[in-house]
């Protein structure tokens, strides 16, 4: 009887435990890996006969520069989201059902990136495509920030006490991107090329070292 009681108590404790983030991280890494791989398939191989390839291949490849641009920019931006997601979940020690669903919706929009890449690569001179691309990336950033806000403000799901400077630094890192995306959308109404340059600025902002990076290394 004592053995059965102890087993029952252990089972109850296991059921009452708050789920860890292991499954969330595994699913997220898998989705990110697939998305990063699929994007390269949006670059079309030139349809040129072998007889004309000697003269026409390089000019055709040069005409495809918008596809290469959208691939490189999008690959780096998705990589930045993966790094931010990794750093965030490195701090989270337990999860909840709302957090799981927020992350799932976040991944749904991340998985849609290859489609946006294909549109921008093929219709890069159409201003509406740059708006669609910017709105898509803004939604992804917003969903990422929603998770960060939830685990640090709504529910304290992080391990240990976070320095408020770190929290604010993370806020800035996540919210800086939508700000630049809005500028890029606005610039597209004036000149599509300016819009493209602003997306590059987003990558530069994230690659620059910050207070947040120093705290992560200290931890």
In terms of topology, how is this protein built?
Layout lengths: L1 H15 L5 H17 L14 H11 L1 H27 L5 H15 L1 H10 L4 H28 L9 H25 L3 H16 L3 H8 L1
Helix pairs in contact: 2-4, 2-5, 4-6, 4-9, 5-7, 6-7, 7-8, 8-9
Main sheet properties: none
The N- to C-terminal Cα distance equals 46 Å
Give helix % range.
Answer: over 70%
Order of helices and strands: HHHHHHHHHH
Alpha-beta content class = mainly alpha
Q: Kindly provide the radius of gyration, computed on alpha-carbon positions and rounded to a whole number of angstroms.
A: 22 Å
The number of domains: 1
Mean pLDDT, as a whole number?
A: 83
Number of contiguous helices: 10
Keywords:
10 helices; 0% strand; 219 residues
Commentary on this structure:
- The protein is 79% helix and 0% strand.
- The protein has 219 residues and is mainly α.
- It has one domain (19-218).
- The longest helix is centred in the middle third of the chain and has 28 residues, at 127-154.
- The protein is elongated, with a radius of gyration of 22 Å.
Question: Briefly, what is this?
Answer:
The protein has ten helices and no strands. The chain is an all-alpha fold and 219 residues long. α5 packs antiparallel against α7 and α7 (127-154) packs antiparallel against α8.
């Amino acid at each position: 009887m004592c053995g059965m009681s102890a087993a029952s108590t252990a089972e109850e404790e296991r059921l009452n435990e708050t789920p860890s983030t292991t499954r969330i991280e595994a699913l997220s890494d898998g989705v990110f890996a697939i998305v990063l791989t699929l994007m390269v398939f949006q670059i079309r191989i030139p349809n040129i006969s072998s007889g004309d390839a000697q003269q026409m291949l390089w000019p055709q490849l040069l005409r495809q520069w918008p596809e290469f641009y959208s691939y490189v920019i999008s690959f780096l931006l998705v990589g930045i989201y993966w790094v931010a997601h990794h750093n965030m979940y490195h701090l989270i020690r337990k999860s909840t059902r709302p957090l799981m669903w927020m992350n799932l919706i976040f991944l749904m929009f991340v998985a849609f990136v290859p489609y946006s890449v294909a549109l921008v690569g093929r219709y890069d001179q159409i201003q509406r495509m740059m708006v669609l691309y910017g709105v898509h990336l803004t939604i992804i950033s917003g969903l990422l920030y929603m998770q960060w806000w939830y685990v640090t403000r709504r529910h304290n799901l992080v391990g240990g006490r976070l320095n408020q400077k770190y929290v604010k630094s993370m806020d800035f890192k996540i919210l800086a991107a939508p700000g630049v995306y809005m500028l890029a959308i606005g610039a597209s109404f004036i000149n599509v090329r300016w819009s493209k340059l602003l997306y590059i600025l987003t990558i530069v902002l994230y690659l620059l070292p910050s207070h947040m990076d120093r705290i992560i290394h200290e931890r």
